[in-house]
Design goal:
491 residues; alpha/beta; Rossmann fold; six-stranded parallel β-sheet; three-stranded antiparallel β-sheet; 9 strands; signal
Length: 491
């Protein structure tokens, strides 16, 4: 059976005229419609078959009665029965359109005395029925949408508008511009800005020299620079920031978004197709929508920027970061903290069952991190050890001190004396070198890139000093794609 979809056939006037009767009056086929339809043709569709003749009389009666043919069950049932028994093979849409053209007088017909016009009429009924079903489905969706809370309605409508806007915008961009087929999403642009606005090696070198020369004498500065250049081979690379120019079409199509630069001291504008970055506000600048802001907040910090964010919170906010992430993000960061020379991994997931071996491994990780001045990551994963009641207790104070969860708590000499062993001391001292920081990583317990309320309560009850810590949400590329898909679907 041939199924016709009204949205896949542009210019199908029949669908519009018969689906929306209010365009012609108060009823689907009222007196105004009857003045248009050529009844002479309809009444002369006699056929040798009694079934076709019966169908013609019924159709004529329904039209004169002013009913909505697309929802007339008796007419539709008889039409489908005739079509299913017919040996002719035609396209329903084309035959229905031809029949309608003759009915409204746009085409003349020799009024043949055979069943083909009746077959056309049956095809017309099929098309009308399918159109009515489409209208009913759309109406059901509108009723369901109307029954939802206002916030849910706004989210769904906004997501639909965003998808429609992006699709229409992409269709308008000339291929000669060689732009991407799809615009970059705001979160990807924000990460790009952070990376693109990082100082080059030459800029970092110049800044370091300038900072050292503020309180020094000119002679000291010259001597230090000469020593660094000639003996330590630390001359700047001469690397300059690349400037490829701004695509002039970026001011015509697409949007510009505003984000903070890497240093966080000023805003810059980035284009959502070309990723050009400028300092002045362009005319086609667009503020982030509420959904886009919510997406950025939900995702948090990109996984590659996480070490920088940890350092910022620990050194500037004076707090221990608690990192939340998906399974893939947490496992990737676990590998990073294990191999990175500036980091040390403390695998607390082994403490699901407290035992002396796991506690000793944790102690060694603490000592190693303090001696090297690295970031100590307390990795919990999907396990939430009870640090407060079962681990950081007097029984294990020389293995896992409570001070580890206090900002700057490990700077206490007495605390370090208890966890350092004699062969680990340096000159009888328990060193803690600059760069030592502490962070905690915990895996989301849901698939929606968020922590459940029950899990949050559990975390607060098992981690000492949790109220003084600062939470970070992290994500990877797969998480971003998943969140974008959820936003597009209105979830």
């Amino acid at each position: 059976m041939y199924h016709w979809h009204p949205y896949r056939h542009e210019g199908w006037a029949l669908y519009i005229m018969l689906l929306f009767p209010r365009l012609r009056g108060t009823r689907g086929w009222d007196a105004r419609t009857l003045t248009v339809v050529d009844h002479r043709y309809l009444k002369r569709l006699d056929c040798e078959s009694k079934n076709w003749t019966t169908f013609r009389h019924l159709l004529e009666a329904r039209i004169e009665a002013g009913g909505f043919l697309g929802r007339d069950a008796e007419v539709q049932m008889l039409a489908e029965s005739l079509l299913s028994n017919s040996e002719k093979v035609f396209h329903s849409q084309e035959l229905a359109q031809e029949f309608w053209s003759i009915l409204v007088g746009e085409r003349r017909h020799p009024y043949p005395q055979h069943c083909f016009p009746g077959y056309q009429a049956a095809c017309l009924m099929r098309v009308l029925h399918l159109a009515a079903e489409e209208a009913a489905a759309a109406e059901d969706f509108r009723r369901v949408l109307k029954a939802l809370p206002s916030e849910e309605q706004r989210r769904i409508q906004s997501a639909a508008a965003l998808a429609t806007s992006s699709a229409s915008e992409a269709a308008e961009i000339p291929s000669a511009w060689r732009w991407p087929k799809e615009p970059f999403d705001p979160e990807a642009l924000r990460v790009y800005v952070l990376d693109a606005t990082k100082p080059t090696q030459q800029e970092a070198w110049d800044d370091a020299l300038a900072a050292r020369s503020i309180d020094g004498k000119k002679e000291d500065f010259v001597e230090e620079k000469a020593f660094a250049n000639l003996l330590l081979n630390k001359e700047g690379t001469g690397e300059q920031r690349k400037d490829c120019g701004i695509d002039p079409h970026a001011y015509e199509k697409g949007k510009w978004y505003r984000f903070l630069n890497f240093k966080g001291d000023c805003y810059v504008y980035v284009h959502n197709y070309t990723r050009d970055i400028i300092a002045t506000r362009p005319e086609n600048f667009a503020e982030l929508s509420e959904e886009e802001k919510a997406l950025i907040k939900k995702l948090g910090t990109y996984i590659k920027e996480l070490p920088t964010e940890i350092d910022r919170i620990y050194t500037k906010e004076k707090a221990i970061p608690v990192i939340y992430g998906s399974q893939s993000s947490c496992e990737a960061m676990k590998t990073f903290f294990y191999y990175d020379k500036h980091s040390t991994l403390l695998d607390a997931s082994k403490l699901k069952r407290v035992n002396s071996g796991a506690l000793e491994d944790c102690r060694r990780a603490m000592v190693w991190s303090m001696k090297l001045g690295t970031t100590l990551c307390i990795y919990c994963g999907d396990v939430m050890p009870d640090f407060l009641e079962k681990i950081c207790i007097s029984k294990y104070k020389d293995l896992f001190p409570l001070s580890l969860f206090m900002y700057g708590g490990m700077e206490n000499d007495l605390v370090r004396e208890k966890i350092f062993r004699d062969d680990e001391k340096e000159g009888g001292q328990c060193p803690i070198r600059p760069g030592f920081m502490v962070c905690i990583m915990i895996m989301y317990d849901t698939m929606g890139l968020q922590m459940s309320s029950m899990r949050k309560e559990e975390i607060a009850g098992k981690i000492p000093e949790f109220g003084r810590m600062q939470e970070i949400r992290t994500y990877n590329d797969d998480d971003r794609i998943k969140a974008l898909a959820e936003m597009s679907s209105g979830k």
